[in-house]
Amino acid sequence: MKKIVKYVITDILRNKIVLVYTLFLLAASFSVFSLEDNSSKGLLSLLNIILIVVPLVSIIFATIYVYNSAEFIELLVSQPLKRKTIWLSLFTGLATSLSIAFFIGAGIPVLIYQANMVGLTMILTGVLLSIIFVAIAMLATVKTRDKAKGIGAAIMLWLYFSLLFDGFVLFLLFQFADYPMEKPMIAVSAFNPIDLSRILILLQLDVSAMMGYTGAVFKDFFGTYIGIAFSFSALFLWIALPVWYATRKFNTKDL
Amino acid sequence: MKLYLLILFVVVCAPASSKTIKAGANEKYTTIASAINAAVTGDTVLVAAGNYKEHNLVIRTTIVLKGINYPVLNGEKKYELISIKADGVVVDGFKIIHSGVSSLEDISGIKVYDSRNIAIRNNILEDTFFGIYIQNGFNCSIENNQLTANNKEEQQSANGIHCWKCDSMRIINNKVTGHRDGIYFEFVKNSIIWRNVSTNNMRYGLHFMFSNDDTYVSNVFANNGSGVSVMFSNRIKMFSNYFEENWGDASHGILLKEISDGYMQGNHFNRNTSAIFMEGANRIYMTYNSFENNGWALKIQASCVDVVLEKNNFTGNTFDVGTNGSLVLNKFNNNYWDKYEGYDLNKDKIGDVPYRPVSMYSMIVEKYPPAMILFRSFITSLLDKTEKILPSLTPENLKDTAPLMKKAF
Predict the structure, then answer these.
(1) Closest Cβ–Cβ partner in A44, A48, A214 for B372
(2) B370 to chain A: which residues are within 8 Å by CB?
(3) Is B358 within 8 Å of B317 (Cβ atoms)?
(4) If you measure CA to CA, which chain A residue comes closest to B368?
(5) Residues of B with CB below 8 A from A216's CB?
(6) What's the confidence (pLDDT) of residue B5?
(7) Model confidence band, residue B289 (pLDDT cutoffs 50, 70, 90)
(8) Distance between CA atoms of residues A106 and B6, nearest Å
(9) Count of the separate structural domains present in chain B
(10) Residue A167: closest CA among chain B residues belongs to which residue?
């Protein structure tokens, strides 16, 4: 397994896209921090980049990479290796390289300018988001054989998580305007890792006071250990469930 | 003739013959109460440094009560310290601690009952229920006092400087912390509040009710439970005050409720959840104020009429203006908005397209507070952008027709 992971990582590094991604993140974060006059503002601007760019790059890159390594996978399957090992090492390689890219690109500037709880939460959620979207991408690829369809599905999934889901939430709020929706909203947010990460980071920043009663309800929940445990386990579930399901599918897939 | 002159001389100089009475452990009068009783109109009672536990001192004659090196008056958590019931009394240089607590009698550190021309200055008040309480006073000055209380609960605390039914008051250079309201005005006319610092009070830094024709200048109100509240008053003027760090769920820099004919110039609003919250305000003119890093710079309810904002700076606020209806009877003109994305073709430093300070998302949040869950999400910024191009939900008339390209000052 170690060997395959190592091979996957070196292969990803060799094709330079991840390198460009790292450099882009580095440039974006440093310019954001040096443009804004106070660094907590910079953190807020960086939040947008992390919540949009990181999932997008992770899901698209991972999907295309898995499709492109179809022959490599076939070759590995013909060897005396378990399918589960092959699939998991592919996942580990992708997740590791993208997480490292994120950590170097955004994590280091954040640690330089804002090495506090907010910064750490941001780095952690960013890494988790990278892994989650690799996992989702692997699920998308294993479900569809057709490359164009698979990449299309990946883009749609990204669109869903970063835009459509929030639109749906807004619609839900309008429909149930007469009911207290604060608590159900906490549950709903668990269904979208991007929302969950955003709320986690915002609650660390003191903008939460602006959220009024809603913010107070969220803070009462997400501010406690139970809330933090809940949200991180939700994020881990977002990794574990797709990986588990994709591995099961891959085990029985006719290549 | 000489006799007449002599009589005239004696009459004119008679007040000058007032004497100075000393009180203290080593003086003729060992208690302050006995010295006050011995004093007649126009006398000065000098109190030496030391600890005094004399329950309640009542002043019924026009005297100057002056402490040397801050003699300590201790109320042992039972009594009111100084009660003034005569005109023209001066209380200067005391340290007043541990007054009693009673909401029934409004126990205070220093309380003035129905008197004129009182001066209370250079005192330190610690752990008092009400600090300085003026009841039905006229032409009184409260200067250079420091009031500190360590209250934990709003119900069991009272106000720092409390004026009720007064006229022509001067509240100058006092520092108030830890009380319920830092400075409280109710039915107070023609008064000035100048250079006071009111911080960390439980409820409001300044609380104003039914008080007309008052002015406050160069005060600092920071970190109070919910900022400053000005209600049901007419012709209030505010110059160069600082409203800062009033950050919390129900906090605002200043609440203007049912205010008419106000004038605000040169005030600074920094890091408040909402800098100004206006409800039922009429004919308020605001100019040269700066709004920085607030959650909402301005929450202006549809019940406000003829509020005019000219040449103010809005920078770094999350939302510039929030409102609750589509009716707009207020005017925005020549303000600087950092979120303005317009252009200036003729280079007259005034933007060519109007700026709409109300974003769609702030309208949505006003209607459906739980929508705050989508704060800073992709969809809300997308909605705001579409709304900017084609306004539908935001009030059509709420706009700055001539926004400035550069800061107004």
Answers:
(1) A214
(2) 173, 181-182, 185, 214
(3) no
(4) A177
(5) 249
(6) 60
(7) very high
(8) 93
(9) 1
(10) B379
Pairing label, strands B57-59, B82-84: parallel
Q: What digits encode the pLDDT tens for the residues B227-261?
A: 899 999 999 999 999 999 888 777 889 999 999 99
Q: How far is B109 from chain A (nearest CA, A)?
A: 36
In this prediction, residues B39-50 reach a mean pLDDT of: 92
Please check whether residue B48 lies inside any domain of the structure.
Answer: no
Q: What is the mean pLDDT of residues A184-198?
A: 89
The dihedral over CA atoms of A15, A16, A21, A23, expressed in degrees to the nearest 10, equals 170
Instruction: Provide the shortest C-alpha distance from residue A194 to chain B (in Å).
Output: 9
DSSP string, B38-77: H--TT-EEEE-SSEE--S-EEE-S--EEEESS--EEE-TT
Question: Looking at the domain assignment, is residue B210 inside a domain?
Answer: yes
**CA distances for A77 relative to A10, A33, A86, A115, A141, angstroms:** 20, 47, 8, 45, 17
Does the pTM surpass 0.90? The reply is no
CB contact under 8 A, B368 and A210: no
Q: Do A202 and B376 touch (CB under 8 A)?
A: yes
Q: What is the CATH number of the domain that holds B167?
A: 2.160.20.10
Residue type, B140: C
Q: What is the pLDDT confidence band of residue B16, given thresholds at 50, 70 and 90?
A: low
Band of pLDDT at residue A33, cut at 50, 70 and 90: confident
List the single residue in B373, B379, B380 with the smallest CB-CB distance to A189: B373
Domains of chain A, by residue range, sit at 2-252
DSSP A160: I
Q: What is the DSSP letter of A156?
A: H
Residue A129 has pLDDT above 80, yes or no: yes
Range of the domain at B70: 61-389
Report which of B257, B209, B258, B213 is spatially closest to residue B238, judged by C-alpha positions.
Answer: B213
How many whole angstroms separate alpha carbon A69 and alpha carbon B295?
49
**Interface membership of A48 toward B (CB under 8 Å):** yes
**Interchain proximity A213–B380, CB inside 8 Å:** no
Note whether A210 contacts B: Cβ–Cβ < 8 A. yes
Specify the residue for token string 């970063």: A162
Task: Give the closest-approach CA distance of B315 to chain A in angstroms.
Answer: 12
| pLDDT at position B3 | 61
Q: Is residue B333 part of a domain?
A: yes
CB of A36 within 8 Å of any CB in chain B? no
Per DSSP, helices labelled H in chain A are: 2-14, 17-35, 39-68, 70-77, 83-102, 108-113, 117-143, 147-159, 165-175, 182-189, 193-204, 212-222, 225-252
B374 CA: distance to closest CA in chain A (Å): 7
What is the rounded distance in angstroms from the CA atom of residue B67 to the CA atom of residue B94?
5
- Which conformational region is residue A195 in: left (phi greater than 0), alpha (psi within -120 to 50 degrees), or beta? alpha
In this prediction, residue B364 carries a pLDDT of 85
